[in-house]
Design a protein that fits this description.
The chain is α/β, with parallel strands linked by helices. It is built from 13 helices and 7 strands. The structure holds S-adenosylmethionine.
């Protein structure tokens, strides 16, 4: 999606939605802030599939204006954390629902490893070029076996016409490969359930009408409307369909560095084991040293949901580990001069 169309659809409209809801009343907030991607039936399916319950820490990646996460909090008592790269959408979610929102991309989630219980990513993957990067990050923040709820617009053929700007719809085959390749098991998949009840869609339409009255002359409004018409045509012609997916996070492959840290390394995997291990630890150390997640935020440190000292601890741990590995390499490759 071009920057202007993306900003129009996901940022400007989100901000206008919050303004319109403030005028109309709170009961308009959730239907209007589910940015067209979900209905209560779809959300209920995802919530049941993911076995959400009171207190579940649910990360919503690409949360938009926060409607789905607010719905899950209201109906299932979850504790949502919203992650969204568009600033006005973040502000809209905070204004409308008072939920914690992280301004960040799903490709780099500033949360601790295995720090949430479940994740949703609804209507996001088709707007993202590097879908695997987002799924890998979600995999990292979930513990093994944890559920992921996805709403994905899937292309029924490799090329859809007209293609909405910036959207890259995966085919079913690509989606299955993507999930498997990023460490998820596909547990169940269904077509999106039928339309929302009138009482829900009328509230969303009322908000849209207020927005149109106020912003019809705005270029961003025209861009967002054009995008939405293109989607309607593609659904009507059967070129795309919306799929709901319940996936589960597979345990990560244990790396040699993790094995040595966890004390499970008992045998060498080959002649080059120490060299491979050293290379891997060096790579992890570089990553840890270059990681400055706090720079993603303008928020005070007290409001960060990750712990920056984790990064420092990780660096110290890796440096110690690197020293041990270097010693190990030295011991197993004694200096020939010493033998002489
Ligand atoms: C169709 S909207 C869906 C919003 C929300 N999930 C919902 O269902 O109402 C797609 C959202 O994905 C967000 N998005 C785009 N690229 C993203 C990325 N790299 N990481 C996380 N979110 C992204 C957009 O800003 C937008 O809010």
């Amino acid at each position: 999606m071009t920057a202007s169309a993306m900003v129009a659809e996901f940022d400007d409209v989100a901000g206008w939605t919050a303004d319109a809801v403030e005028q109309l009343g709170e009961r308009y907030a959730i239907p209007a802030a589910c940015r067209g991607s979900a209905s209560p039936a779809a959300l209920a399916w995802l919530a049941e599939a993911c076995e959400l319950s009171a207190g579940t820490r649910l990360l919503d990646v690409g949360a938009g204006a926060g409607g789905p996460a607010a719905w899950a909090a209201k109906r299932f008592g979850v504790r949502p954390i919203l992650l969204e790269p568009m600033p006005a959408a973040c502000r809209a979610a905070a204004r409308l629902f008072g939920l914690p929102v992280i301004l960040a991309s799903g490709g780099r989630i500033p949360l601790r490893t295995e720090s949430v219980d479940a994740a949703w990513c609804l209507g996001v993957l088709c707007t993202v070029h590097d879908k695997a990067a987002v799924l890998r990050e979600i995999h990292r923040v979930l513990p093994p076996g944890a559920p992921l709820g996805l709403l994905v617009v899937v292309a029924r053929r490799p090329r859809v016409v007209p293609a909405p700007e910036g959207n890259l719809f995966p085919t079913q085959h690509e989606l299955v490969e993507l999930l498997a390749g990023t460490g998820f098991d596909l547990v169940e998949q269904i077509d999106q359930p039928n339309d929302a009840p009138l009482s829900w869609s009328r509230r969303a339409e009322r908000v849209a009408a207020v927005i149109a009255t106020r912003h019809r002359a705005d270029r961003a409004h025209a861009l967002a409307a054009h995008q939405s018409e293109t989607f309607t045509r593609l659904f009507a012609s059967g070129q795309i369909s919306t799929q709901l997916i319940h996936a589960a996070r597979r345990p990560a492959r244990q790396t040699p560095a993790q094995a040595i840290r966890g004390g499970t390394m008992s045998t060498s995997t080959g002649d080059n084991f120490e060299i491979e291990l050293e290379t891997e630890v060096e790579a992890e150390l570089t990553l840890a040293e270059s990681s400055r997640p706090e720079e993603l935020f303008g928020q005070p440190a007290s409001e960060w949901l990750f712990d920056p000292t984790d990064v420092q601890r990780e660096e110290v741990e890796l440096r110690n580990l690197l020293g041990a590995v270097e010693k190990l390499s030295g011991d197993s490759n004694p200096d020939p001069a010493e033998d002489a």
